[in-house]
Design a protein that fits this description.
elongated; mainly alpha; 53% helix; RFXK protein; Serine Threonine Protein Phosphatase 5, Tetratricopeptide repeat; 10 helices; ANK repeat; single chain; cytoplasm; 171 residues
């Protein structure tokens, strides 16, 4: 039954009407963390609930919050390949290169998940290609190790590097 669900569960499931009712009841429930430090926004981002993410941001959810293991809404959205949420969060000036307990960054998670559009969006907004995971892998190393080389990753990353060089040449 829906009334028994927490604000975190409602956010993860995209139950906007019930979520709105819950949030009206308490002060700053919109940024209330659960036992893992996940706020409703982090749950909505992790499950690709774009409308819920949009509403939570409008209602004052803090997009900069990190959970206990340093998970960010941006990293969780990148992991799932939710490019629309990634873009929405980047528009809120979240740290694009934030790393979690595992040394993972949003870009590394997007590469790991084979989410090409997400990778393109992150690179276009300044994600650091040289950032290494705790394993020592850069995003390109990871793409090759996972066998994404034949896909679009190499092309996307090479195009990004070319753009950087072209920009440098014009300065």
């Amino acid at each position: 039954s829906l009334p028994a669900l927490s604000i975190h569960q409602l956010a993860a499931q995209g139950e906007l009407i019930q979520l709105k009712e819950h949030l009206r009841k308490g002060d700053n429930l919109v940024n209330k963390p659960d036992e893992r430090g996940f706020t409703p926004l982090l749950w909505a981002a992790a499950f690709g609930e774009i409308e819920t993410v949009r509403h939570l941001l409008e209602w004052g959810a803090d997009p900069h919050v990190l959970a206990k293991e340093r998970e960010s809404a941006l990293a969780l959205a990148s992991m799932g390949g939710y490019t629309d949420i990634v873009t929405l969060l980047l528009d809120r000036d979240v740290d694009i290169n934030t790393y979690d307990w595992n040394g993972g960054t949003p870009l590394l998670y997007a590469v790991r998940g084979n989410h090409v559009k997400c990778v393109e969006a992150l690179l276009a907004r300044g994600a650091d290609l040289t950032e290494e995971a705790d394993s020592g892998y850069t995003p390109m190393d990871l793409a090759v190790a996972l066998g994404h080389k034949k896909g679009k990753f190499q092309q996307v990353i090479e195009n990004h590097i070319l753009k950087l060089f072209q920009r440098k040449g014009k300065e």
